[in-house]
Write a structure and sequence with these properties.
Number of helices: 17
Number of strands: 18
Shape: globular
Largest sheet: 9 strands, mixed
Helix content: 25-40%
Strand content: 15-25%
């Protein structure tokens, strides 16, 4: 039995209900391109919304983080990873959470207690030292010299909202003698689990007070913990990756040793690309947002496959992606449903990129005819526009007795990274966002627009994604043509008609099968548990949704479509605003 199954079985035995993994592309959260942490899909329930499954939840969640994409290639960075989590929504608190964490580590995973160390919150000017967590660990047999008190053990999403101290569990990942005293700065101690105790709320004015209903949020990384349990210092040498690496090695006819970086990048990036492509949101390679990340991952994998000498005209990427799909499809049904789509995306992007590389060679020939050396700006242009890695540029330059300003390239690359990080800071920070009054109105407006498009365009229209901020809503839907001015006006008029009618928005909970039979629509059926929340707007709309929504359509103001454009093949995008009456 693998780590995911062991984890779920343990917490189900403690009264938790397993909830499905949410899609990697979040609904209605403009703060991120992807779900970056296991707790993100739980945010509405941590904020107080009742969960249909009750107060004790557990899951394994697909996560994607790409702000460290250039670090992938070492032993432990990944763009896609899985997080194990268990939650208490106003139910149990520190004693139970810590006791169960300790029991899972020592009794289920059989980690020797002498290899464990702990950090707890030391307190700050608002919140006192977490003496309760400290004493619970001591009562379980953890020695005082193995418990460190740190002010950094504090969690809050953003500048205000639910917050509190956390306790982290560390494992001695070394064959060196285990020191008696725990030093958190010693990197031989590796964090494997984190229990966050949301016992407080910080207000916008900086004041902090205790929450009446306290939550527990935990997180354990599957990749890191598996490597630790198997005693390997390279995540890619664990059982999670061994077969994928072995296949890449076989295709390239090269050993893993000496080619680790390229093989890790190919394995990691293709795995992430498969999950993005198979996601119900229908993301395709493009030059913006999630599509840009998808394209970048696939092209980086291709560059490293070429570096290994893999034949670009073979089906190498299909073999690797097929193995990844087979490994995960029993856990994530969208890989079974959309696996062929993911394979097509990879094949098409490989063909496009090979053409781009050919154009890049022509560009290289053009610029080198007129110069004795290649400056940093030119080298970066070849990389950024044509996908030329600096190694390829230098190799071609050497053949022509040209020099490359490698330092200049590195400076341009660094500037590009800083610009990318600055531009995407909001999109990757995550947090308890998107539940204000205006965002709530836009959530409801998406339901009305979806219903209107089904009438105006046809019943085969389905929501493919949405993005909401306090300024506007963005709604992606399946459609094979650009909307006419008449269609846009008719859809807008229908939404405003329903707003003027003042229709009540009703909410109910029911089994998922009953909801579907009743005609309720949903965007991502796989993400919903067996008991679901259904929002009905009179006879106009009935959808499975996590909310939040207004009580009556009359609260929305005037609906206005600002723009209608293509999003990707077979998907159109509408941007709209709500104006005060």
């Amino acid at each position: 039995m693998n780590l995911k199954d062991l984890y779920i079985d343990f917490f189900v035995s403690k009264g938790h209900k397993q909830i499905p993994s949410a899609p990697v592309v979040p609904e209605n959260d403009p703060s991120v391109l992807f779900n970056t942490a296991g707790m993100m899909p739980i945010i509405p329930y941590l904020m107080g919304q009742p969960h249909p499954y009750g107060k004790r939840l557990c899951d394994y969640q697909k996560c994607i983080r790409t702000n460290d994409i250039d670090e992938v290639g070492d032993t432990y960075h990944h763009t896609f990873f899985e997080m194990l989590g268990n939650w208490s929504l106003g139910d149990y608190f520190k004693k139970e959470a810590i006791t169960w964490s300790y029991a899972f580590l020592t009794e289920v995973l059989h980690i020797p207690v002498e290899r464990l160390a702990i950090t707890v919150f030391s307190g700050n000017k608002f919140i006192p030292f977490d003496e309760e967590a400290y004493n619970v660990w001591k009562s379980l047999g953890i020695k005082e010299e193995r418990i460190a008190k740190l002010e950094d053990n504090f969690w809050i999403a953003g500048d205000a909202g639910p917050c509190g101290g956390d306790t982290e569990m560390f494992y001695w990942r070394s064959n060196d003698p285990i020191p008696l005293v725990f030093d958190p700065e010693d990197d031989r101690w590796v964090e494997i689990w984190n229990d966050v105790f949301m016992g407080y709320v910080k207000h916008e004015d900086g004041t902090v007070e205790e929450l009446p209903h306290k939550n527990v949020d935990t997180g354990m990384g599957v990749e890191r913990t598996t490597a630790i349990l198997e005693g390997v210092n390279d995540n890619y040498a664990s059982s999670l990756w061994k077969d994928v690496i072995a296949l890449i090695s076989s295709i390239a006819n090269l050993p893993y040793e000496g080619n680790e970086k390229s093989m890790r990048i190919i394995a990691d990036h293709l795995r992430t690309a498969v999950f993005i492509s198979a996601d119900p949101a229908g993301i395709r390679p493009s030059n913006t947002d999630q599509g840009y990340i998808l394209r970048r991952l696939i092209r980086r994998a291709i560059r490293h496959a070429k570096a290994l000498g893999i034949d670009m005209h073979s089906d190498w990427e299909q073999q690797i992606a097929g193995l990844i799909i087979d490994k995960f499809k029993n856990y994530y049904k969208e890989l079974e449903t959309n696996g062929k789509v993911a394979l097509e995306v990879l094949a098409n992007e490989k063909i496009k990129f090979n053409r781009t590389l050919e154009k890049g060679l022509k560009e290289f020939n053009r610029v080198t005819e007129k110069c004795e050396n290649i400056d940093g700006t030119t080298a970066f242009h070849l990389f950024d526009t044509y996908g030329f890695p600096i190694e390829l540029t230098m190799e071609l330059a050497t053949e022509r007795n040209l020099k490359v300003d490698e330092e200049g390239f590195k400076q341009k690359f660094k500037e590009h990274q800083e610009l990318s990080r600055t531009a995407s800071a909001g999109k990757f920070k995550g947090g308890l966002a998107g539940n204000g009054e205006i965002e709530t109105k836009y959530h409801t407006a998406t339901h009305l627009l979806n219903a209107a498009l089904k009438i105006v365009v046809g019943p085969d229209v389905h929501q493919k994604g949405s993005n909401i901020t306090s300024e506007r809503m963005r709604f992606d839907f399946s459609c094979d043509h650009k909307l006419t001015e008449e269609e846009k006006q008719e859809a807008e008029d229908l939404v405003n008609q329903w707003i003027l009618e003042g229709i009540s928005v009703e909410v109910s909970e029911m089994p998922k099968e009953d909801a579907i039979k009743s005609g309720a629509e949903c965007m991502f059926i796989e993400k919903y548990p067996d008991i679901v929340t259904v929002y009905s707007i009179g006879e106009v709309s009935k959808e499975l949704c996590g909310g939040p929504h207004v009580k009556n359509t009359s609260e929305l103001g005037t609906f206005k479509i600002i723009k209608e454009e293509a999003s990707s093949a077979g998907v159109r995008r509408i941007k709209a605003v709500l104006e005060e009456k």
